């Protein structure tokens, strides 16, 4: 079995972002810091930064993230969106509302020409999201 999981890069706020995503999606969050693995950073002030985190949600989503240590190039995410979709409109509306809080709406979560509901936003951590509701086929 294989899986494809978004892995998000942050600069000094991965823990805050991943805890926020846990509040949005629920689930179990595992966090490892650079300080837990000697030699992973040469900057002692970065010991508490996130080397790796993984959020596993009740819906089966797996979202990973980390901080970018000094010495590694950090570029804010661009050109990629995390997409959340399904047929539970109320749940998707809840995800939308939480992700939009403090973020910027690019396209409101409304009815597009193809039906259902769809919206795009950039959350308060600079991550682009697409939320799509498609009613279950009867």
From TrEMBL:
<dbReference type="Pfam" id="PF06983">
    <property type="entry name" value="3-dmu-9_3-mt"/>
</dbReference>
<protein>
    <submittedName>
        <fullName>VOC family protein</fullName>
    </submittedName>
</protein>
<dbReference type="InterPro" id="IPR028973">
    <property type="entry name" value="PhnB-like"/>
</dbReference>
<feature type="domain" description="PhnB-like">
    <location>
        <begin position="4"/>
        <end position="131"/>
    </location>
</feature>
<dbReference type="InterPro" id="IPR029068">
    <property type="entry name" value="Glyas_Bleomycin-R_OHBP_Dase"/>
</dbReference>
């Amino acid at each position: 079995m294989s899986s494809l999981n978004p892995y998000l890069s942050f600069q000094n706020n991965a823990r805050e972002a991943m805890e926020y995503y846990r509040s949005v999606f629920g689930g179990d969050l595992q966090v490892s810091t650079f300080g837990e693995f000697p030699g992973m950073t040469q900057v002692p002030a970065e010991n508490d930064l996130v080397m790796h985190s993984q959020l596993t949600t009740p819906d089966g989503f797996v979202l990973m993230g980390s901080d970018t240590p000094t010495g590694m190039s950090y570029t804010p995410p661009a050109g990629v969106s995390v997409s959340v979709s399904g047929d539970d409109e109320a749940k998707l509306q809840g995800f939308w509302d939480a992700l939009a809080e403090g973020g910027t709406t690019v396209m409101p979560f409304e009815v597009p020409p193809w039906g259902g509901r769809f919206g795009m936003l950039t959350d308060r951590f600079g991550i682009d999201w697409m939320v799509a509701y498609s009613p279950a086929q009867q």
